[in-house]
Amino acid sequence: MQIGKPSQLRTSISTATPDSITVRNRDLCKELIGQVSLTDFFCLLLTGQPPTNVQRLFLDASLVSIAEHGLVPSIQAARMTFAAAPEALQGAVAAGLLGCGSVVLGSSEEAGKLFAGLLAKTPQEGTLEQVVEHEISALRARRAPLPGFGHPLHQQEDPRATRLLAMADEHGTAGENVRVLRAIAAAVPKIYGRALPINVSGAIPAVLLDVGFPLKALKGVPLVARSVSLVAHLLEESMEPIGFALAHAGESAIEYVG
Amino acid sequence: MQIGKPSQLRTSISTATPDSITVRNRDLCKELIGQVSLTDFFCLLLTGQPPTNVQRLFLDASLVSIAEHGLVPSIQAARMTFAAAPEALQGAVAAGLLGCGSVVLGSSEEAGKLFAGLLAKTPQEGTLEQVVEHEISALRARRAPLPGFGHPLHQQEDPRATRLLAMADEHGTAGENVRVLRAIAAAVPKIYGRALPINVSGAIPAVLLDVGFPLKALKGVPLVARSVSLVAHLLEESMEPIGFALAHAGESAIEYVG
Amino acid sequence: MQIGKPSQLRTSISTATPDSITVRNRDLCKELIGQVSLTDFFCLLLTGQPPTNVQRLFLDASLVSIAEHGLVPSIQAARMTFAAAPEALQGAVAAGLLGCGSVVLGSSEEAGKLFAGLLAKTPQEGTLEQVVEHEISALRARRAPLPGFGHPLHQQEDPRATRLLAMADEHGTAGENVRVLRAIAAAVPKIYGRALPINVSGAIPAVLLDVGFPLKALKGVPLVARSVSLVAHLLEESMEPIGFALAHAGESAIEYVG
Amino acid sequence: MQIGKPSQLRTSISTATPDSITVRNRDLCKELIGQVSLTDFFCLLLTGQPPTNVQRLFLDASLVSIAEHGLVPSIQAARMTFAAAPEALQGAVAAGLLGCGSVVLGSSEEAGKLFAGLLAKTPQEGTLEQVVEHEISALRARRAPLPGFGHPLHQQEDPRATRLLAMADEHGTAGENVRVLRAIAAAVPKIYGRALPINVSGAIPAVLLDVGFPLKALKGVPLVARSVSLVAHLLEESMEPIGFALAHAGESAIEYVG
Q1: Domain containing D115: what range?
Q2: Is A8 inside any structural domain?
Q3: Which positions 35-54 of B are in contact with A (Cβ < 8 Å)?
Q4: What is the pLDDT, as a whole number, of residue D7?
């Protein structure tokens, strides 16, 4: 493990003395507690700067849109875990977050990267429409998933995406990322042979990148949002337990085929 | 696992149709996204009701006060985990949350329970001061920890606790829980032979319970707060890696004694 | 975190140089690899000593008996997690282990502690039968669970427990811990008004403590055993996915009650 | 989550009735407990077949070789987690396993895939030496890591790899996978400009694939092995705590750069 030396270890996030705690060059107790929201603090921790008004608006809207969607697999996993190990709430929250992976909640960041890649090719390689058609066709040809599109339940339209994009229009923040998202949506029927709705994980990076949220921080948005939802489900589980009954429903449906 | 039957499975948190998502009887897209903060949404998910103004103020203040305190053990564990497994941000966040246990961050709930227990004995078993002296002496006698007091770094005073309690005085929300906390603080020097500062995990339950936050939800406050901080540290780790160097510092300090 | 000083940091487990690795005072490459089983190595790591023949036999038997029991909640949680986050097998194994808690798999250690406590009171406080009747009645009176007894599926008899206890008889290793376990089983019908079977988590501590396995290490037995089973289920999940379908079975059974 | 239907849910691993438990078509209590080792059971669970003698030998040797290597980052993360949350041993084991990722312990499977890919190109695309030189040069050119080679401490030679490969020679099991591993080692100095040692994660897939262990199951080998080591370290932590002191060593080395 001879990587790095103690003298090179640095952080820009925070430090503390017996008398004070400094976060991103601000005094936690004098400048932050009681004056900023958790969302503001999240933005400050991530970027070193408090959010502007539209950044706060869209970060809150994105977090609220992705936090809760009922008894999804990660919530069920967390509730089963809590039923079996009620001594450790943190373990059940952790089990739920472990299901925020590439298939289910990780596509916000993938979609953000896709937008950035497409924008980097315009106008040198063609108009936005031409670049989108070419690149999405190539993606389809190599059978790669299209991040930010499609949903097993919201097959016609994901109402969360519709709302976030409408907000971007209302507040005049829709920029090149919303534009590229809509260009992809327009190209999808021709390339895939059917319409696929923009989903919440497509809309979040579009509206957040357009207000200056950093691409690398996108992956943290669903994780923070889901921690909120997990705590609420686990509070309900502690009062109205269903974790084992959920497992029983699954177990009853299984056939052993030896 | 024959516990419960599918017909008994219920949740009060949310449901969804292809066209809409309902959270705590509100339409997520029409009534919540763009209109409430993450903190409001957390309160709604937990309790079924949006926060009042003072509830929002103290929930945000509590979350901000407990979210970040530098390279604490759980942050180091998360950064080491991310260095070894960068393919899974969710795993590193989970590893960090697993260290939010009874010794380090779980004492908010313990302190809240202690306050409730002491208040339940007054005035039947004596004045608040009498009950506190009797019960804290008993706790000391059986060598149980005193939740909400003491800190390895902030040995004279935890400035976060001071700030939260000052806010409760300023906003006129200080009630019986702040009163019992201060009664314990006053009794400590006599019982323990030295002063112990009220720490942030003592102040959080006092100010939150006094604005009507449910006791059972206290344990979720540090977990949500730390998820925010973990995401920020892991973003920094992805850009300025120190996880392996931190492990090297620890490893170098170890002696094998066979 | 000013607890401990670097100069005090010690481990007795292992150390390494560029040329060799030393585990419990043995050269890993010259004395262990190719010469001992994983079970032997587990015992050596835990206790500093390789197992005797009967220790190996009963440690393997215990691990094999507790490793696999079909689509239990923790396996379902792990398979759902893997379906959502297939990039991180380690995350799905971790999610499964997080469900090895006090309610489901943690009772081996609790049962072991119960046996030790009962044995410590004989013969001073009475015969084994008297102590058992008195203490188990008290436990029943305070509504505490009886670790090591009862199973939702194996309601008459847990065949794993039967097998482990028969092995202890066959090999002549049954000692005071098996004796106390059987004394509890004999007292249960009178105290609880019905027979409760000895379960696998009651038999494991009995047979292991009787061959000298340390009480404090009992909690690790189900964790190691389940890691084996989790890896096998996740390999099956990667080839024949059922994680999302299990979640669908649970989700379909849920009613939203607003 | 409308993926799959309950009627399609199947497993080949195990099932249970009130009277018996069936694992891979064997009666757990009559045919397995007391008759097979944990390693045998692991192989049976994974593949549906008990191991042959050489499979058992090399699976045990591989597990023992990768289980323990001192205070590596994942062990430190686990010990810090346990110090903060001693109520949940399973959480600390989970935190440790979460660090078994692509950078540190995941390379066994990557190396196995590399071997399979190289072997699939011979002899059509050239001799083994030609294919290796061409493909490893290409891998180097695109700056991809070379799985199975190099170690921060064992810079000249990883003694675990040497031992495993010597065993394959002694037992006459060295086949095409050991051959391709050695061909890569021979090509490395020319391609990389310096020798890199075969590490334990290169030797494990070579010796295991040569005795018929399935490629897809390789990733589980370090996970099971590390669960054993984690339990031992956490038992030591419960008796001789160093988790917080390790964190203190790291924290002391950090500079805040605002």
Answers
A1: 107-217
A2: no
A3: 36-39, 41-42, 45-46
A4: 52
